[in-house]
Every structure is written in structure tokens, then in C-alpha cells.
Amino acid sequence: MNIAKIETFFVSRFLVARITTEDGIQGIGESCYWAYPKAAEETIKGFSGALIGMDSRDIEHIWGFLWRYNSSFRGNSIGGAISAIDMALWDIKGKRLDAPVWDLMGGKVRNKIRAIAQGINGNTPEECAEGAKKVMKQGFSALKFTPMPNNWAELTYSKMISLAVEMVTAVRETVGWDFDIGIEIHRNMQPHEAIAFCKEVEHLRPYFIEDPIVPDSVASMADVSSKMNLPLAVGERNMGVWEFREYAQMVKPAFFKPDIAVAGGITGVKKIATIAEAHHIKISPHNFQGPIATAACIAIGTSSISWDVQESVEEDKPPRRDMTDEIIKLEDGWYYPPEKPGLGVIFNENAPSKHPFDPANSPPPIKDDGSVGLK
User: Fold this and answer.
1) Strand ranges, E, within the chain
2) Is the peptide bond preceding residue 319 cis, with omega within 30 degrees of 0?
């Protein structure tokens, strides 16, 4: 049962870790430190020497060991590495015990998980409305989008706010009132801009406002939260129970957005979900990554009371579709947990050659005066 081998693979910019035990059982996990995935890969390699020979069953011990490894340094390359390793260990445990991961964590609290559609963004209200029509036809009952054009950093304060309000209005008019709209600001606003915008869209009843400002300061996010009357969603850049505890106590959001592939894997996010439950906070995990991480999310969502909507990406298209033998069933806007052992998906070894490493390239916008904009 001891760990014998740890491997890493890139499928485009998706980093996959595979752990093999001495008796040949393999488990897979995924990291979503997508901006710097090579750093997460090197961190996994740095952990490998210490992990070889450890008992793969001792997931909680291994998580704490890695978190405190080399004097408790912090950072998302570490969180992304631990997350991928943790998922792989849970996958191994499920395969060894012939049970789905959700079964090992207490069984089902729900039979299916509502998906929230993404990717309907546009540069005009009309484009956003067209995207909303598309996901409605696909059977979704919720969507999330960014009501800001690509050139938002070039707009004046008044124009940016008014156009953002027009985009949300267009989507609401398209989907009607029996549909939930999440608004993703992508950290693009200053605190005063976010507060003004939230006031103007209150009547459109957003399901949540996500990351209205950069997550540089819990205190700043708490100040924004105290001045807005809409549900706030935060946490996709954060990791570990300690950061989410501070959000729960100081910011008091309606939603946590942990990314399971950077926040601590299944072990870490299961604990974050418990913090959420204790504070009446819902979980709507950040899900930008691939089908392995989605499978891990569904495992927790199936067994966690605080889980709410699951972000949906187009996993039926490459490169995501080529990463695993199959993807978690998504039908009419609902995810259905698999009955297969472990995470329920198997890594496709041909995927790395089909989709070579593709580094991220997402620089911040440069404003008219030459300064760096938010992102």
C-alpha cells in the first residue's frame, strides 16, 4: 500500500499527477495553479522523495506533512501540488476499497448537483443575451458571466458601470425570473466601483457577486461586503482552512468559491465545506480546470451539505475531453455522481502527446496613462 511512484503530465496547461502504489494501484489528481503550472509541477517533484515509501492510506497525515514541509512556506504552487497529490490518494483509496470517493466521505446527501453554466461573456448586451439563450436551450437553470467588455480598462467610471448594468439587464430580460444569474467581476473593480455597481443591479436579483475586487486584503473585501446588499462569493485564489475561516468571520460572504485543485484537494475542501456549513455559507467551487478536478468536486458535492451549484465547463471538447476515458455525466443542467470506484475517471496517457504544454499568457490590461489595470 506504500507509495512507489509519482508522475506528472501536462495536457495543454492542465497538470495531472499520478501516484502508483507498491501493489500497482494508480490514482490521479489535478492541479489548477494554471498561471504557473510548471511551478506546481516542480513542487510535486520536490515532495516526491519524501512521499515515496509512505502509506497511501494515511491521507490526512500526508496532507499535514506536506503543508508543513520545509518550514510552512505558503503559496499556490504548494497548494496546487498538495491538491493534485491529495486527489490521487483519495482515488487510490476508493479503488482499493471498491467504492466511490463520495461513499467514503459519508455517502450521498443529494442525488444530483445543479450546474451553473459559464462562458457566455460578450462585449455588448446583445452578445451576452445570445449566450444566455444558448445555455437555456441546454437545460441549465443558472449561469455565471462577466458583465464587462474586453476593453473595460479603457472606459470611464460612468461608462463602465452603466454598460455593466446594461449587460446584466439584458441577461435578466432574456432568462426571466425563474433562473439564477451569477455575476463574475473577475477582480476588475476598485472597492468604490464595486459598491456602486452592486447598488445599481440589486433590482435584477443576482444570485451572487463574485470577486468584485482583487483578493489582496481580507479587510478590504470585508469593507466592500459590509456596504453591499447582494450575496458575495469569494475564495477561488485561496487555500487552506485558515484563509477561509478569516473570510467567514470577517467578510461573511454568502458563497465560498474554493478551487479544489489549488485550495487543498479533497481533504482541504471538505474541511472548507464544513466551515461553510457552520456559518450558513454555500459552496460554489471555482471550476476552470479539467475533468479530474471536476470529478473530485462532484465527490464532495455529493456528500457535503453546504454544496450548492457546480461551475460547468465544456468538458465534452478537447483538450479536456481527451484527458480521461469519460467525463462526469452532465444532463439538462445537472451533474450525476458516478458509481465507479475512486474518482470514477481514468487518465488517458495519449492526451499529453495530443495536447503539448501550452503556457498561460494573460497579462493585465494597460490603461491609457500607461499604468497597470486590475485583473
Assistant:
1) 3-11, 14-21, 26-31, 113-117, 142-145, 180-184, 208-210, 232-234, 255-256, 282-283, 310-312, 329-331, 334-336
2) yes
Instruction: Return the biggest CA–CA distance within the chain.
Output: 64
Question: For the structural domain made of 3-99, what CATH number should be given?
Answer: 3.30.390.10
- Distance between terminal CA atoms of the chain? 44
At 153, the pLDDT band (50, 70, 90 cuts) reads: confident
Q: pLDDT for 296-319, tens place per residue?
A: 999 999 999 999 999 999 999 999
Predicted local confidence at residue 244, as pLDDT: 96
Residue range(s) of every CATH 3.30.390.10 domain in the chain? 3-99
Q: How many residues does the chain have?
A: 375
Q: Is 311 helix (H, G, I), strand (E, B) or coil?
A: strand
Q: Report helix, strand and coil shares of the chain as percent, to nearest 5.
A: 40, 20, 40
Q: Give the other-Cβ count within 10 Å of 275's Cβ.
A: 19
User: Which among 117, 130, 110, 123 has a CA at the least distance from the CA of 155?
Assistant: 123
Q: Is 232 exposed, middle or buried (0-12, 13-18, 19+ CB in 10 A)?
A: buried
pLDDT average, residue stretch 219-229:
95
How distant is the alpha carbon of residue 144 from its chain centre? 13
Identify the band that residue 226 occupies on the pLDDT scale cut at 50, 70 and 90. very high
As a whole number, mean pLDDT of residues 253-268 equals 97
Q: What is the DSSP secondary structure assignment for residue 364, as one 8-state letter?
A: P
Could you say which architecture CATH assigns to the domain 103-343?
Alpha-Beta Barrel (3.20)
CA–CA dist 124, 150 (Å, integer): 10
Q: How far apart are CA 301 and CA 307, in angstroms?
A: 5
Q: What is the CA radius of gyration of the chain?
A: 20
Query: Where along the chain do the CATH 3.20.20.120 domains lie?
Result: 103-343
The secondary element (H helix, E strand) that includes residue 252 is: none
Record the pTM: 0.96
